[in-house]
């Protein structure tokens, strides 16, 4: 890839570094780190000529754009597609793809339903569920696949249950989420791959959001109870449930795979966690910083916005590289190292500002549960073969992480 | 890239401080304060109906509804009624507080959120207009069908009449010395579905609105009560101690640092994220002592429980807090 300081298409008279890289090509998705570094070093803003969008890759600029909902709107879509001109593939999210004031009420409701205080009642149950799963996996032998046997399994055991959707069909959540996150990118082969099942999966997911289908207790029921109080409308309630089912599964699957991959490749950090199990919480956020399961989101300029010396014109799309910000050496010492001694607070892997991941506490509790359960029994964990990446336009994902463990 | 990275921009105790940047008389006995971060940074986001806590230099804590423009991320505006009978908060603001002064701040928190509806009826009495003002702006922005009934003792004592003038017939201004008591039944009409009624003002007005809405559907009416003057301990400006129950360590927290920072200095790392009391990541269990809550997360009941705090912004009302760390 090349990054050259050539005059961009906009604005006249201002030179903006331009790059012809395709962030959604298989080559980049396999290993995006060199592209992240090139974009960070090219300047605060880089024009991506392939898609004619502006890219931000430095921590300060990504952080500033994330919190500035006034100038960087979400309701024109947080993917490449600009909803001002293009029809979304499904009715827009009332959270992710909304701005104040319409964003206010659904956000307020979900923030309470998924807040740290609401999760206290799940802590013991999830810890027990994690112990059961870890025992099952270890009973099969000392070699297993951390991504397939733990990462892809644990969230599907606990999260749909906590939402309150019926057992049959839960496996559909993974391909549905995978497609939803692909759909934030360009209409490439990854999107085409998911297209044949869109109608079937969307229909099934929408069906699970109905009050009659949801269990009488759980996140889903809590959302419907909020609509009974008038805090959101009955039309918004199923869309709020849909947000949980879309954004709450693949992300945690890949987040858990990421932390297990991190430990399998950093044996000294595993030893450190074993010596001090309370580090599990910090370890997960460090893994989210290091791997950034959600790599990117877009915004749209609501006005001519100045970033550095560049003015991004009103109406143009901005691609924020959360993953690049999370390894920006301007912000993080030795950013490529997975290090439990670091304070990862302030990473943008969950976003920042009014759209910051409303399920972040759920993700942390899931990861803490499974890592703690594993640390109780496993003395060492290491790779047992080459990991295999799963390509997605938005997610940094692992298909397979073969590991070998030594038990106590 | 080998240059050592700078430490993250320090926010520290600064997040919990505001500087008075404007003070303007709006009506007889009513002034507005404009407040900004001492560093000029973005303030915490807010929604109509929100209030902030101001910790005055006298140590008194007072709640004020935000009545500015949320699209301006660096300025809060609050309206303050002079209440000579009060315990001194409003008198201090009117007579002592100067542009340039620093005040402690908490929140914003919202116990009076504007819920989605296609039709709103707003009732405001006196200084109760402050939370309603951003609500009517927002209702207008959303294209909702709305009307406001605004009462006060005299026209000259009613704030923001100029800002409301642009809404024409949607706003009924009814000073008592010209019109008598507010005609609530006439304004509200028959109970019906699909209308949200919001009311803020003195207790007798709210009682009258509640009577008038007795036969309305559940949850149709939402009111904001002026809370009684805070009887709790004044917020501390002095240092306090934090005891870590699991290790027995005690840390002194001086006014210039947050609890999070003070703990970090003695090697106790607590995971945080927004460092603005918004996201909830740094929630810490409180075993003893009463926190001085400055976050934007806990509702009134949760605050009163005093069983947890967000150490990135919240402090202590007592000399000693015991945390489950």
Topology:
The complex is a heterodimer of chains A (408) and B (325).
Chain A: E1 3-4, E2 18-19, H1 26-30, H2 33-42, E3 46-48, E4 53-56, H3 59-67, E5 72-73, H4 104-113, H5 116-139, E6 143-145, H6 146-151, H7 154-163, H8 173-182, H9 189-194, H10 198-208, H11 219-228, H12 236-247, H13 250-265, H14 267-275, H15 280-291, E7 296-301, E8 305-307, E9 310-312, E10 317-321, H16 322-325, H17 360-377, E11 378-383, E12 388-391, E13 396-400, E14 402-407
Parallel strand pairs in A: 2-3, 4-10
Antiparallel strand pairs in A: 1-2, 3-4, 5-7, 6-14, 7-10, 8-9, 11-14, 12-13
Chain B: E1 17-27, E2 30-36, E3 50-55, E4 61-65, E5 76-81, H1 89-95, E6 102-110, E7 119-125, H2 129-141, E8 145-152, H3 161-164, E9 171-175, H4 176-179, H5 184-188, E10 196-200, H6 203-212, E11 221-224, E12 240-244, E13 250-253, H7 259-265, E14 283-288, E15 291-292, H8 300-305, E16 308-310, E17 315-316, E18 320-323
Parallel strand pairs in B: 7-8, 7-10, 8-9, 10-11, 12-18
Antiparallel strand pairs in B: 1-2, 1-6, 2-5, 3-4, 3-6, 12-13, 14-16, 14-18, 15-17
User: What's the count of strands of chain B?
Assistant: 18
- How many domain regions of chain B? 3
Main sheet of chain A, how many strands, which sense, barrel? Answer: 7 strands, mixed
* CA-atom Rg of chain B in angstroms: 22 Å
Strand content of chain B: 25-35%
Q: Mean pLDDT across all residues of chain B, rounded?
A: 90
CATH architect. name of chain A: Orthogonal Bundle
Shape of chain B: elongated
- CATH topology of chain A, by name, is Cytochrome p450
The level 1 CATH classification of the largest domain in chain B is Alpha Beta
Largest sheet of chain B: 6 strands, antiparallel
- Residue stretches of chain B low in confidence (pLDDT < 50, at least 5 long) are 1-11, 228-232
Question: How would you spell out the order of helices and strands of chain B?
Answer: EEEEEHEEHEHEHHEHEEEHEEHEEE
In the CATH hierarchy, what is the superfamily of the largest domain in chain B?
Nucleotide-binding domain of ferredoxin-NADP reductase (FNR) module
CATH architecture of the largest domain in chain B: 3-Layer(aba) Sandwich
Structural class of chain A: alpha+beta
- Major beta sheet, strand line-up of chain B: 4-3-6-1-2-5
Give the largest interface. Answer: A-B, 44 and 39 residues
- Name the shape of chain A in a single word: globular
Strand content of chain A: 5-15%
Distance between the termini of chain A: 48 Å
């Amino acid at each position: 890839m090349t990054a050259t300081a050539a005059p961009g298409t906009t604005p006249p008279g201002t030179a903006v570094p331009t790059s012809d890289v395709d962030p959604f090509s298989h080559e980049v998705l396999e290993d995006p780190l060199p592209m992240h570094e090139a974009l960070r070093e090219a300047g605060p803003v880089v024009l991506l000529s392939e898609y004619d969008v502006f890219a931000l890759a430095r921590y300060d600029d990504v952080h500033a754009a994330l919190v500035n909902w006034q100038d960087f709107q979400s309701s024109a879509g947080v993917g490449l597609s600009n909803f001002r001109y293009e029809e979304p593939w499904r009715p827009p999210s009332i959270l992710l793809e909304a701005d104040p004031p319409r964003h206010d009420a659904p956000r307020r409701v979900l923030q309470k339903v998924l807040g740290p205080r609401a999760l206290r009642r799940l802590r013991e149950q999830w810890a027990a569920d994690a112990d059961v799963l870890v025992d099952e996996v270890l009973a099969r032998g000392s070699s297993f696949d951390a991504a397939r046997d733990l990462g892809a399994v644990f969230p599907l055991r606990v999260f749909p249950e906590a939402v309150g959707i019926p057992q049959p069909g839960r496996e559909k959540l993974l391909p549905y989420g995978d497609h939803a996150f692909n759909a934030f990118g360009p209409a490439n082969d990854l999107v085409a791959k998911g297209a044949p099942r869109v109608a079937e999966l969307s229909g099934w997911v929408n069906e699970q959001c109905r009050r009659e289908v949801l269990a009488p207790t759980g996140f889903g029921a809590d959302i419907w109870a909020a609509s009974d109080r008038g805090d959101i409308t009955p039309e918004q309630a199923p869309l709020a449930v849909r947000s949980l089912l879309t954004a709450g599964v693949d992300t945690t699957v890949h987040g858990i795979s990421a932390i297990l991959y991190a430990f399998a490749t950093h044996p000294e950090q595993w030893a450190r966690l074993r010596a001090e199990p309370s580090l599990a919480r910090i370890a997960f956020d460090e893994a989210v910083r290091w791997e950034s399961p959600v790599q990117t989101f877009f915004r749209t300029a609501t006005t001519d916005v100045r970033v550095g010396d560049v003015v991004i014109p009103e109406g143009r799309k901005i691609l924020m590289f959360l993953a690049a910000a999370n390894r920006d050496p301007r912000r993080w010492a030795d950013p490529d190292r997975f290090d439990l001694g670091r304070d990862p607070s302030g990473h943008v892997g969950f976003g920042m500002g009014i759209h910051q991941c409303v399920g972040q506490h759920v993700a942390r509790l899931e990861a803490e549960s499974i890592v703690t359960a594993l640390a109780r029994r496993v003395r060492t964990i290491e790779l047992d073969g080459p990991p295999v990446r799963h390509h997605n336009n938005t997610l940094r994902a692992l298909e397979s992480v073969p590991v070998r463990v030594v038990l106590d | 890239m080998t240059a050592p990275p700078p430490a993250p921009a320090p926010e520290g105790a600064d997040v919990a401080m505001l500087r008075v940047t404007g003070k303007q008389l709006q009506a007889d006995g009513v002034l507005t304060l404009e407040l900004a971060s001492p560093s000029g940074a973005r303030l915490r986001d807010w929604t109509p109906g929100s209030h902030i806590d101001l910790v005055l230099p006298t140590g008194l804590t007072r709640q004020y509804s935000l009545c500015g423009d949320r699209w301006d991320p660096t300025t809060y505006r609050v309206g303050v009624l002079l209440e000579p009978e009060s315990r001194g908060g409003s008198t201090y603001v009117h007579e002592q507080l100067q542009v340039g002064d620093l005040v402690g701040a908490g929140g914003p928190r919202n116990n009076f959120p504007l819920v989605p509806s296609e039709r709103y009826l707003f009732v405001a009495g006196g200084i109760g207009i402050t939370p309603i003002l951003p609500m009517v702006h927002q209702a207008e922005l959303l294209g909702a069908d709305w009307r406001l009934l605004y009462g006060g003792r005299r026209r000259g004592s009613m704030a923001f009449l100029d800002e409301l003038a642009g809404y024409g017939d949607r706003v009924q201004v009814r000073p008592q010395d010209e019109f008598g008591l507010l005609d609530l039944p006439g304004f509200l009409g028959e109970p019906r579905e699909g209308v949200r009624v919001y009311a803020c003002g003195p207790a007798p007005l709210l009682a009258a609105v509640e009577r008038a809405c007795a036969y309305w559907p559940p949850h149709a009416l939402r009111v904001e009560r002026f809370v009684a003057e805070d009887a709790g301990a004044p917020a501390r400006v002095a240092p306090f101690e934090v005891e870590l129950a699991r290790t027995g360590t005690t840390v002194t927290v001086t006014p210039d640092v947050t609890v999070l920072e003070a703990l970090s200095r003695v090697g106790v790392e607590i995971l945080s994220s927004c460092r603005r009391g918004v996201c909830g990541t740094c929630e810490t269990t409180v075993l003893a002592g009463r926190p001085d809550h400055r976050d934007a997360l806990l509702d009134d009941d949760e605050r009163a429980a005093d069983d947890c705090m967000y150490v990135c912004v919240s402090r202590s009302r007592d000399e000693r807090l015991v945390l489950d760390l």
